[in-house]
Amino acid sequence: MRSVVLLLLGAQLAYAGTHSLKYVYTGVSRGIDFPEFTAVGMVDDGQFMYFDSNSMKAVPKTEWIRQNEGADYWDSQTQGLIGSHQTFKNNIQIAMERFNQSKGVHTFQKMYGCELNDDGTTQGFYQYGYDGADFVSLDKNTLTWTAANPQAVITKHKWEATAFAATEKVYLENTCVEWLKKYVGYGKDTLERKVSPQVSLLQKDPSSPVTCHATGFYPSGVTITWQKNGQDHDEDVDLGELLPNEDGSFQRMSTLNVGPDEWKNNRFSCVVEHQDKTIRKTEDDIITNFGDSVPIAIIVGAVAAVVLVIVIGVVGYLVYQGKKGFKPVSASDDGSNSSART
C-alpha cells in the first residue's frame, strides 16, 4: 500500500478547555486501497461517530451516543456526509489542477470544532489542509480566510465573496457549543472520569534510543518531559502524537535520542504529569530486549496493533471539506454536512 502523508491538524489546537467537540474529514484521491472519504467526530479527543465512503453509513462509536440518539440523528448524519463525499471528490481534482499535479495519491483535509472552558468561555477553529500541509483557515473574529500558499488564494477570495465565514462563525459559537454540552451530558460518567497513565521506559538494545511510553490515561491532557541530572532536558527529544486506545483512553510516547556513553555518564529520567499526579521513571526502570527484562517486542507489538486500529478507525484525523452555508439545525449536530467547492 502506498503511504499517505496525513496532517494532524489537531496538534497545534490544544486549548486548555475542559471539553471539546471536533470533526475531521479526509478526502483521498484514487490509487490507494483506502476509502475516498472518511469522517470522524470526537468529543474530548475520543471518537464517538464514524463514516466512510465504503459503508456509506454514519455509525456510533460509544455507548453514550448510541443510547441517546436514534435513527433520525444517524440518517441525518449519513445523508449530509454522502453529499460531502461528492464534494470532496470534486475538490481534490480542483486542488490537483492548482498544484499542477496529474497523478499520484493526494489528500484534502478539514478539521473544525469548538472547546468549552471551565469558566464558560469558548474557542472555535476551522482549518483545511492539502497533502499534509496547511491550505486555508478561518479567522472567525474578522470573518476572513487565511491562505497558506498561492494556490489557496483563489479559495480565500471566492469564500470571502460569500457569507460562508459568517455562517461558520454562527455554528462555531452557538450550535457547536450547544451540542458539545449535550454530548458531555450524555457521556458524563465516561467523559469526566480520571485514570492515571501506566508509564514504561523501553529500549531495544544498549545502543538504541530510549522511549518513554505513557498509556491508558484519561482525560487526554498529559505532559512528558526528560531530565538530565535533575535538570530539564529538551535536546534530542522526539515527542509523539497523542493517540487513542481502543478502550477510549489515550497513549503518547517521547523518545530520547542519546548515545550509550552519554546515557551511561549521566542520570536521565522521564517525568510524566497527568492531572495532579507525577510519575518519574529512571534507568532502573528500563524494559529491554537484552538481559533478563521483559521483552520489549511484546510491548512494541501491542502498541503497533493499537496504532493500526487508529489508522483504520480514526482516519478522519486529516481533512478537507469546504462548505457553502453551514446551516445550524436543531435535528442533529450536522453542521459539517453542507459543502462548497474550493
List the helices and strands and how they pair.
Blueprint: E1 19-28, E2 37-43, E3 46-52, E4 59-60, H1 63-68, H2 71-98, E5 107-116, E6 122-130, E7 133-139, E8 144-147, H3 150-160, H4 164-186, H5 188-191, E9 198-203, E10 210-217, E11 223-228, E12 231-233, E13 237-239, E14 243-244, E15 250-256, H6 260-265, E16 268-274, E17 277-282, E18 286-288, H7 296-313
Parallel strand pairs: 9-18
Antiparallel strand pairs: 1-2, 1-5, 2-3, 3-4, 5-6, 6-7, 7-8, 9-10, 10-15, 11-12, 11-16, 13-15, 14-15, 16-17
Description:
Mean pLDDT is 82; it is low at 1-17 and 292-332. The protein is an alpha+beta fold and 342 residues long. The radius of gyration is 22 Å and the shape is globular. The two termini are 29 Å apart. It has two domains: 9-190 and 314-337, 2-Layer Sandwich (Murine Class I Major Histocompatibility Complex, H2-DB, Chain A, domain 1), CATH 3.30.500; 198-312, Immunoglobulin-like (Sandwich), CATH 2.60.40.10. The relative contact order is 0.18. The strands form three sheets. Strands 4-3-2-1-5-6-7-8 form an eight-stranded antiparallel β-sheet. Strands 9, 10, 13, 14, 15 and 18 form a six-stranded mixed β-sheet that branches. It has a four-stranded antiparallel β-sheet with strand order 12-11-16-17, with no helix packed on it. Helices cover 28% and strands 31% of the residues. Keywords: Glycoprotein, Membrane, Signal, Transmembrane, Transmembrane helix. Pfam families: C1-set, MHC_I.
